[in-house]
Amino acid sequence: MVRSDVDGEAAADERVLQYPLPGAGPLDPPGEWARLRQGCPVAPVELPSGDRAQLLTRYDDVKQVLADPRFPRVGAGQGARIASDSGGVFNSDMASAVPQTGPEHQQWRRLVGRWFTAKRMVALRPAIEAMAESLIDDMQAHGQPADLKASLGFPLPVWVICTMLGVPDRDRDKFSYWSDTLLNLTRYRQEEIVAAQAEFLAYMGEHVRTKRERPGDDLLSELVTATTADGGRLTDAQLVGTGQGLLVAGHETTANMISKMVAMLLADRRRRWEQLLAEPALVRTAVEESLRFDANPGIGMPRYLAEDLELSDATLPAGTTVMCSMGAANRDMRAFDDAEEMDLSRSPNPHLSFGSGPHSCLGQALARTELQVTLEVLLRRLPGLDLAVPVEELQRVEGLVVGGLRELPVRW
Amino acid sequence: MTVRVGVHEDRCCGAGQCVLLAPEVFDQRDEDGAVVLRDPEPAGSLHAAVREAAGVCPAAAITLDDAG
């Protein structure tokens, strides 16, 4: 359609942004977030695949869409693709063994939900603490400076997942490799990804069979025998898919968040780190604030609108793919006082980093526990922790889905 | 002042925040992590924690009614 000059202003408003949006520094939010929240809360964007989506940046809008059970995440050929070549796990059918929507999803979620209760997390704390201690021992033994991401952030969540799945300690490194390969869409060749998928599936299939025959005291064993309200049980394929889901959803995300959290706390001349050393009781709210303040959380959550949707300021037609930017929403001053300030004692802190509503992150209690324990142990063991490079020299990872820092060089 | 607490078990997504913030008031079922209300009229000393729990519940499954 050709626009006349009269339409110039409208045309400018419909300017299509390339997505993801660039951030200024490694810990800074994209400058566009504030502008879009203010003036263009539904913004047309072009994804790396070339497909179009509408970007939502306001707290209320993002929360409303994420919490709406009518709109599942994009998949099954519906809606815009993020990247045209995103092979990896997001397009594989491995994860589809786990029902994604409807009553079956609800039932699966309730079965697996038993893994993540607050009581379970309290019980798991000492084990996580011991893992953090042991990883920090190794990091110290290797001397400084060290990469806190490789030494602590990356291995810790895999170790935790292995414990939950009842995988022996000697196989942790295999899990680390598979997880990295399945998620990293750029670093590995296609053959390596395919081989890792096959190895992982074979291992997990065998592991599930073993647990059926000889259940242990791990959570996977419990799930093997658990029954749904109507007496159904999870199939082997579903159990393997669940194990994979745990790795996909719980590893890279937590690994990156540990490093980003520590980076945010050490930036600004360690002012926040000192605050926590003086007041360790702030660890819980500091973790929540780190989750809220994360300027580099990845691309956000895509949703396919199967029906028209009415937002506060606009109506979106059925067939639209929306991209929910939780990072932008988390800095919306309509929802948070001094939204652009990192306040370690902020409470309540209803950030959207784990989503909202029935599809909000199943493992959020685990992620919180891992982040809290890691921070507590670091404050106790390495009170003198500091960045080994200037903040500006930290580099973002190039991956699309989960945002993070490539390395976190530290001294202590 | 009395605060009446209500929970929507069917909305609950098992995030467990309420149990961590106010274990005297909220619990989770062992089988599936769904919310269990232990005390619908908690003492005044717990009101702040209960309000925070309601404020951060990702499923908006906790309702508060200030009965005056």
Can you tag this structure with a few keywords?
heterodimer; A: about 400 residues; alpha+beta; Cytochrome p450; 5-stranded mixed sheet; 3-stranded antiparallel sheet; 10 strands; B: about 70 residues; Alpha-Beta Plaits; two-stranded antiparallel ribbon; two-stranded antiparallel sheet
Describe the structure in your own words.
The complex is a heterodimer of chains A (412) and B (68). By secondary structure, chain A is of the alpha+beta class. Chain A has a single domain, classed as Orthogonal Bundle (Cytochrome p450). Chain A is 46% helix and 8% strand. Chain A contains 16 helices and ten strands. A five-stranded mixed β-sheet of chain A has the order 1-2-3-8-5. In chain A, strands 4-10-9 form a three-stranded antiparallel β-sheet. In chain A, a hairpin with a 5-residue loop joins strand 2 and strand 3. In chain A, helix 5 crosses helix 7, helix 11 runs parallel beside helix 12 and helix 14 packs across helix 16. The N and C termini of chain A lie far apart (61 Å). In chain B, strands 1-4 form a two-stranded antiparallel sheet. In chain B, strands 2-3 form a two-stranded antiparallel ribbon. In chain B, strand 2 and strand 3 form a beta hairpin. In chain B, 43% of the residues are buried. The model of chain B has no long low-confidence stretch (mean pLDDT 94). Chain B has one domain: Alpha-Beta Plaits. With 68 residues, chain B is α+β, with helices and mostly antiparallel strands. Chain B is built from two helices and four strands; from the N terminus they run E-H-E-E-H-E. At the A-B interface, helix 4 and helix 5 of A face helix 1 and helix 2 of B.
